[in-house]
Amino acid sequence: VGNALMIALWGEHTPSPMHSMHFGWRAGAFLAPMIAYPFLSGRLEVPILVNSTLNNTTEATIVNGTRIILTESKIIYPYMITGGLGVLISFVYLGFFLAPRPDGMRFTNTAKSRRLKQFLSPASCAGGNLRFGTLMMICLTLYYLFNDIVGNVFGNFQTAVATKSLNMTKQEAALLNSASSGTALATQFLMIFLAKYVPMPVLVFSEVHGILAVSIAAFFFVLNNILGFTILSCAFRFFSAAFWAGGMAWAENYIDITGAAIMLWNIGSGVGGVFTYLSGYLFSNHGVSAILWLDLSIAILVCLLLYITQCIMSRHGPKRRKD
C-alpha cells in the first residue's frame, strides 16, 4: 500500500521518495538485532574436574578441562519490544489516514476501471497495450521472485552460516547482522540522493552486477574466513539494499504501477520466499557450498532477466504522462 501511494503521489519524481520510504524499513532492520543482542543466550566455558577410567578401574584423577554451558535465552523480550513499537507507529498511520486530505492533492495512477476484469488486466498498466503489459508483469514478477532468493548466504542464512560453519557465537552473529544491516541503511540513505540525479536503469544495473560480483567472490572467502565473510556480507547489503525500491522506480518510467501490479509482484516475492525451504534443505544436507552455487545461479539469472526487461522497455519507450 505504501509503495502504491508513494507512486500515486509523486509520479515521475518517485525514485527519491520511494528510497526515502524504504530507508525507514532499513532503519528497523538495523535496530532489531541491536535490541535482541542483550537477550541472546551466551556460551560459557567453566573449569571442571573429570574422573578418568583406565583398565576397568575407576580412578578419581584430577584432570583439567572445560565444559560449554548455554545460558538461558530470553528472546521473547525483544519480540515484545519491537511488536510494541510497531503498534505505536500504527496509531500514527491511522491518524494520517483519518486526517483530511490537503487541497489540490492529485493521484497520478488512479484506477482506469472499477470492473475486476479491467482492474486486473495487464493492459491497464501499459496504456491499453496488452502484449507489453503482460511481458512487463511477467518480467517484474520474476524480478521480485528472485529478490527473495538471491544472496541466501548473506541474507536468510547469514546467522546459520556464521554460527555453524564459522563457529561464531550468537552474539557475534548478531553484531555481524548489525554491521551488514548498518551498511544497507547507509546505502539506502545514499540512494535517496543518487536516485534524484542518476537514471534508474544505471543504478539497477550497477546493483545487480555488484550482487553477481559478490556471489563469485563468496566461493573464495565464505567457507573458512570470518573476515572475508563479514566484508562480503556488508558488500552484499550495499548492492542489494535498494533492490526492491529500485525495481519499482525503474519500472515507473515505462508503465503505470497500480495496486494490482504491486499485488502481483508481492505474490512473486512470496513465491520466492517459498524457495527458502529449498535453500534450507541444501544447507542442511550439502553444506554452505551448495547454496553458494545456488546464489551464483540466481545472480546470473537476475542479470539475464535485467537485460531482457530493459530491451522490452526500450523498444516500447517511456510512457506518456498526463499534464
Chain-wise SSE layout:
Layout: H1 2-10, H2 15-36, E1 43-49, E2 52-54, E3 57-59, E4 64-70, H3 76-98, H4 116-120, H5 130-147, H6 158-165, H7 170-197, H8 200-221, H9 226-240, H10 243-251, H11 259-274, H12 276-286, H13 288-316
Antiparallel strand pairs: 1-4, 2-3
Helix pairs in contact: 2-7, 2-10, 5-10, 5-11, 5-13, 6-7, 7-9, 8-9, 8-10, 8-13, 12-13
InterPro entries: MFS_trans_sf (IPR036259)
Keywords: Membrane, Transmembrane, Transmembrane helix
Features:
323 residues; mainly alpha; Growth Hormone, Chain: A; two-stranded antiparallel ribbon; 67% helix; membrane; MFS_trans_sf; transmembrane; transmembrane helix
What does this structure look like?
- The structure is a single chain.
- With 323 residues, the chain is mainly α.
- It has one domain (2-39, 74-316): MFS general substrate transporter like domains (Growth Hormone, Chain: A), CATH 1.20.1250.
- Helix content is 67%, strand content 6%.
- The chain has helices spanning 2-10, 15-36, 76-98, 116-120, 130-147, 158-165, 170-197, 200-221, 226-240, 243-251, 259-274, 276-286, 288-316; strands spanning 43-49, 52-54, 57-59, 64-70.
- The strands form two sheets. It has a two-stranded antiparallel ribbon with strand order 1-4. Strands 2-3 form a two-stranded antiparallel ribbon.
- β2 (52-54) and β3 form a beta hairpin.
- α2 (15-36) packs antiparallel against α7, α8 packs antiparallel against α9 (226-240) and α8 (200-221) runs antiparallel to α13.
- The model is unreliable at 58-63 (pLDDT under 50).
